[in-house]
Amino acid sequence: MILKNHKLRLLLGIAFFSFLFALVVPTAVNATPGPGIAVKPNYPSTQFDQGGSFFFKTKPGEPQTITMDVANLANYSQTLTIEPTTAYTSKDGSITYKPGKVPYDRTLKYKMRDLVKEKKQKITVGANQTKKVSFTVTPPKKDYKGIILGALYVKTENRNDNVNANNVNLNNKLSLVMPIMIKSQDKKVNPKLTVPSIKPDKSGSQTLINTKLANERPTTIKGMTVTDRIYRKGNSKKTLSKNKQYQLSMAPNSNFNMQNDFGKNALLPGTYHLSLRAHDENGNHWKIEKDFNVSIKDSVIYNNNNWWWIALLVALFLIILLLLYLIYRQKRKQKELLNNQAK
User: Where does the WxL Interacting Protein host binding domain start and stop, copy by copy (predicted)?
Assistant: First the structure.
């Protein structure tokens, strides 16, 4: 019994000192099995602050070269693509820089991607190595209001040998962004929130109302709260749909669709009204009141399984066609009768 207790104490002692050893000895962080990467900006002399991204002042038409260190944290060589992008607002109401086809807002005058000379660079960085890349930013030839926002979008390429023990392709690409923000003036620009359009839509069997929110100024909106409600014009006491969203952000001169769920309410033809209130973290407030129309065609297409309303609309349409036909036939008979009397 004494021997067993001695062994137990010995095991507990080994476990305790192993735990202390694990706390004291540092773990290597510069080699990872996955496609780890990191980037660091080398700030130009015109940089405003050192917050981890490029934010510098420009002179009209004067090119400026920026450099960035790209670190490969993986234990194998990696090929990366780096391309400039223009900031826009994603469908969930956040500032994003992902490349691809983007429906830019009509008020956007300058795109960061168009101002960067190098459209895409592909580099190979050795295991646990760092490589410097450079890009040339040429600002507009005239002074511009507000800011121009974009980024350098860094993405890893797939490896042919990136498989696990079961010979399954892991396909674990990694991407990150280095924001670029430039300005030529120190004058502050306040954002302007508008609603260019309100249209019905559908997701599966659910009826939605898409309210397009647009930031029409060359500055960002951050920490925005939006509250709205929709009702038939002239009947403000009955709310058909309401929505509240928090912590939204918008890129300069961009837009996105905020969706209202219409629930079980029938989307009937007629005029509706949107009442919207919004404010951001910088103290800007907006109040928007806007009418929008729903046509018979929209009602048939986008209604939320209210088949009896659709059937009623179709029946009314057929009745109208029948009445038009009867009126046409009656006029034709009258014309024939007049012609016969004239003979």
Answer: 166-303
